């Protein structure tokens, strides 16, 4: 007998969207189960028996995988952009259209973006409760002193709450400082807002690592699809990291 699963989890496993985005689709009334509109979170479906459609298209669970992308400047980390700007979806092949980005990297920033059709893995990598670290190379205006580094490590108050970071000075020139910034939250433009708050606006921001995944030697605009064995090893490593940060709590999000 097939186990019932939450509709948003099923949609993410079909590569429709991340679990959070799937919840939005449900609330918007864009999902049908057995030809009936479902707009209530918490609805469960039988993957083997129920007919789930998004618009007019029936969806099915996909074979899961991960793609690493070196995002160039002026690319939007979404699958669609109302303004017609270039998005990460423009770099995906036809058989990769079910993949979606894990979190976001802002329009002017460059570096690592993870894409997957595995909603559970996306949740572990992106949700704030799991504290998955992101590492950035950041060039900021001015010379950053030890007092400012301490403020950033203790945390600064932003409009959407306090945010802290581990920051190391890499080098300085006459007018700017290169930093390595490590954060465990994925809020919108959080590094830029933190540095603006302490008086050192960001001139350049490049993400090199997300959780256990590194950008490596990928060139700007390039994608690398992990092999099945690499994908399975990544899932195992992420689960171990999450287990270590959540103590006795389960490393797997709710079903």
Descriptive account of the structure:
By secondary structure, this protein is of the alpha+beta class. The protein folds into three domains: 54 residues, RNA-binding S4 domain (Structural Genomics Hypothetical 15.5 Kd Protein In mrcA-pckA Intergenic Region, Chain A, Roll); 97 residues, Alpha-Beta Plaits (2-Layer Sandwich); 78 residues, Alpha-L RNA-binding motif (Alpha-Beta Plaits, 2-Layer Sandwich), CATH 3.30.70.1560. It has six helices and 17 strands. Strands 7, 8, 9, 10, 13, 14, 15, 16 and 17 form a nine-stranded mixed β-sheet that branches. Strands 3-2-5-6 form a four-stranded antiparallel β-sheet, with no helix packed on it. It has a two-stranded antiparallel ribbon with strand order 1-4. β11 and β12 form a beta hairpin. α1 crosses α2. It starts with a strand and ends in a 9-residue tail after the last helix.
The level of helicity is 10-25%
Question: What is the tally of helical segments?
Answer: 6
What form results from the Cα inertia axes?
Answer: elongated
Proportion of strand residues: 25-35%
- Cα(first) to Cα(last) distance is 17 Å
* Secondary-structure element order, N to C: EHHEEEEEEEEHEHEEEEHEEEH
| Gyration radius, rounded | 20 Å
What is the CATH topology classification name of the largest domain? Alpha-Beta Plaits
Number of strands: 17
**In this structure, how is the largest beta sheet organized?**
9 strands, mixed
Number of domains in the coordinates? Answer: 3
CATH homologous superfamily of the largest domain, by name?
Pseudouridine synthase I, catalytic domain, N-terminal subdomain
The low-pLDDT segments are 248-255
Highest-level CATH class of the largest domain: Alpha Beta
- Give the integer mean of the pLDDT values: 91
So, CATH architecture of the largest domain?
2-Layer Sandwich
Determine the structural class based on helices, strands and strand pairing: alpha+beta
